[in-house]
Amino acid sequence: MATIKDIADKAGVSPATVSRVLNYDESLNVQDATRQRIFEAAEELEYQVKEKKKRRKKLKLGVLYSYSLEEELEDTFYLSVRIAIEKKIAEDGYKMVRISSWDPLESVVALDGIICLGTFSQSAVKRIDAFQKPIVFVDASPDEEKYDSVVIDMKKSVQKVMDYLFDKGHRKIAYIGGSEVDEDGKKVDDDRTLSYEAYMKKKKIFRQEYMKIGGYYPKYGYKLMKELLELNDKPTAVFVGNDALAIGCYKAITELDLKIPEDVSVIGFNDISSAKYLSPPLTTVRLYMEFMGERSVMALADRIYTERTIPLRMTVPSKLMIRESVGAIQL
Asked: In this structure, are 89 and 172 located in the same domain?
């Protein structure tokens, strides 16, 4: 590949003159014949001008979380995703600012974009939209035609769980999950609950008394597991909406002198770091929380830098982590 020095030698001028001519430096005072000689030499040597890399501005990103730090400690899914977001922002050299949907417009003027993690009511989304900034939602997708989003393929994740339990011979499968009411007073449907119910009804084995809904924290797993074990016709397996609930279930089962999985099988969701250290190790669904956090930052930066107008929805798959908390039933 030809260099500026090769062109300079062939044209009989300095490398500096060649560089300025090829970059169309209008302040350079040089004869037209010299310019022509330089261009002819460059063409003959098949020289290609290198494109100058544009310096990207360092972004200032707002982060908006719907869960408090105290709530994160109860259910570490959002804690893990939040840490991944903040780590990626720091690694890429961006500046992070924590904001609220209630912040005045003037306080977010300097932001280049916003990452929203959690669940959001319609009124919250409306307030966030009023900021008029590029936005990416993580674990939520309020409007696929407007916002970027990074979400879990919840239906397929539940399908894996239910197929696994069904293949193990379980038909008396209970579910313990949580529910929320957003700031608008509207119930937030959990796709895990809906998918469990749809699966059981399709198999024609759904029983209303086997579905227990409370909060997403260990105390609810403990309470609702005890209710299930008080039934005359007890379930042989319990699918719980997250691993925090599973921890509560373990306590309830052991207090009743029952064993996992001999007396009842338990399968969780999230694969928190402590899941494999429970006794027995918890079979659960692994969610790629760090990946979700990283990709949300990357998606937002891409939209800002490229001025992309077409929204993207990234659906992240899951993996069933088979351990020792599920046993087989002889049909």
From this structure: no
Do 185 and 264 fall into the same domain?
Answer: yes
Distance CA 191, CA 270 (A): 14
Query: Which alpha helices (H) appear in the chain, and where do they start and end?
Result: 4-11, 15-22, 32-44, 69-74, 76-91, 122-129, 154-167, 191-202, 218-229, 243-255, 289-306
User: Is 68 among the domain residues?
Assistant: yes
State which residues form the domain around 10: 4-44
Q: Do 64 and 13 fall into the same domain? A: no
235 phi/psi in degrees, rounded to 5 = -70, 150
Q: How far apart are CA 102 and CA 70, in angstroms?
A: 20
Q: How far is CA 63 from CA 1, 20, 123, 130, 183, in A?
A: 47, 45, 18, 15, 19
* Chain Cα centroid distance, residue 84: 9
- Alpha-carbon dihedral 68, 69, 75, 78, rounded to 10 degrees: 80
Q: Say which residues have a Cβ less than 8 Å from residue 32's Cβ, sequence separation at least 6.
A: none
Domain count for the chain, please give it: 3
The answer to whether residue 188 is domain-embedded is yes
Statement to judge: residues 166 and 282 lie in one domain:
yes
Position 182 pLDDT exceeds 80: yes
CB 254 within 8 A of CB 266: no
Cα dihedral 63→245→140→197 (10° resolution): 180
Q: Give percent above pLDDT 70 in the chain.
A: 97
Tokens of 311: 């929204």
Residues 251 and 159 in one domain: yes
CA distances from 180 to 145, 186, 242 (A): 25, 8, 14
List, for residues 57-70, the tens digit of each pLDDT value. Answer: 789 999 999 888 77
81 near 139, Cβ under 8 Å?
Answer: yes
Q: Which amino acid is at 160?
A: K
Neighbours of 321 (CB within 10 A): 16
Note the pLDDT of residue 52: 52
Query: CATH number for the domain including 280?
Result: 3.40.50.2300
Residue 55 has pLDDT above 70, yes or no: no
